Amino acid sequence: MREDMLARLLSQAATEGSDLVTLRAVVEEASELGANRVLVRMGLDDPGAREDLSELRGLLGAWRDAKRSAWKAAVDWIVRAALALLLIGLAVRFGAWEMLK
User: Fold this and answer.
1) H, E, C per residue of 21-33
2) pTM: predicted TM-score of the whole model, two decimal places
3) CA-to-CA separations, 26 to 1, 12, 17, in angstroms, rounded
């Protein structure tokens, strides 16, 4: 159907000349045809594609949140370990280690 419409518009432009309205119609039909071809090639031309994309976006958002939380937890642990090492170093430096023995 779209291919036929595009062919008729191109034929009209060739025979009658191409005014602005005809050119816009050709561009619109070609764009629509190209978009539909891309959706078919990607497997997103079925009725459930909208729900699939919505679910994938949700999963991607959850993955990003989990990744952000993991980085935050890792940084928190590194900071805590560094502070613990600093406190141990200060304790050894000021002789608190000898007092514990």
Assistant:
1) HHHHHHHHHHHHH
2) 0.52
3) 14, 10, 13
